[in-house]
Amino acid sequence: MQGQHDTDEQGLVEDVRSGSRTAFGRLVEPHLPRLLGLARRMLGSSEEAEDAVQTALASTWVARAKLDPAQPVAAYLTTVTLNKCRDRLRRRKAARFLSFGLFDMDLPVAAGTPDAETEIGDRQTLESVSRAIERLPVKLREALVLVTIDGRSQREAAELLGVTEKTIETRIYRARQRLREKLDFV
After folding, report:
1. For a disulfide at 163, which of 23, 157, 167, 177, Cβ 3.0-4.6 Å?
2. pLDDT for 100
3. Alpha helices in 29-145 (DSSP H)
4. d(Cα 41, Cα 154) in Å, to the nearest integer?
5. 81, 39 in Cβ contact below 8 A?
6. What confidence tens digit (pLDDT) does each residue in 16-50 have?
7. pTM of the entire structure?
8. Domain residue spans in the chain?
9. Residue limits of the RNA polymerase sigma-70 region domain (predicted)?
10. 1-101 with 107-186: one CATH topology?
C-alpha cells in the first residue's frame, strides 16, 4: 500500500510542478496538521504558526520547480516550515531588542474537567514550560521539538536539520538539561 501512496504523491508532485493548484492542495493537505503543530511548538502561538505555515506553503508553491517527485514531500515541507519559524524567531528577537515588547501566549490546557485550582496550576506549569522552551537556543529547540514533541526519530531530525544523529542526541540532552535547570519539576 505504501508503494501506491508513493506513486500518488509522485504524480501530484509532477502536476504541481506543471502548475496545478488543485494538485498542490491535495499534496499538502495531509501534512497541514503536523506542520501547524510543529510551527506552534516552535513559535508558541497559534496565530504565528498559521502565518508561518501559510508563508511556507506560499514559498513552496513559488519554488514548486524544486520539488523532486522521487523524494517524499513531507521532509521538504517540514524544512521550509522550520525555516519560516526561524525567520519569525529572528524577527521576534530583533523586536525585543528594539523594545517593541513581548508576544502574548495563549496556550490552552488539555481537555478534561479538573477543578479550578488544578486548572490554574496546570496552566501556569504549561506556560512556564512553554516559555522555557521558547528561551532555548533555536538549535536546541528545533531538535527537542522535532524528536520529543513532534515524534520524529533522531535520524529523521538529523536529516531535516542537516546534522548527524549524534548532534541531535547532544542537542536534546542539552535542551533537557537547560529545562531542568530552569524548572524544578521537569
Report:
1. 167
2. 44
3. 32-43, 46-62, 73-97, 116-135, 138-144
4. 18
5. yes
6. 999 999 999 999 999 999 999 999 988 888 899 99
7. 0.59
8. 1-101, 107-186
9. 27-93
10. no
Q: Which three cell numbers stand for residue 127?
A: 506556560
Burial of 142 (0-12, 13-18, 19+ CB in 10 A): buried
**Amino acid making up residue 54:** Q
Does 1.10.1740.10 match the CATH number of domain 1-101?
A: yes
Query: Is residue 9 within a helix (H) or strand (E), and if so which, with residue range?
Result: helix 2-17
CATH number of 107-186: 1.10.10.10
Instruction: State pLDDT tens for residues 118-155.
Output: 667 667 777 777 788 888 898 998 898 888 877 788 89
Residues 6 or more apart whose Cβ sits within 8 Å of residue 174: 140
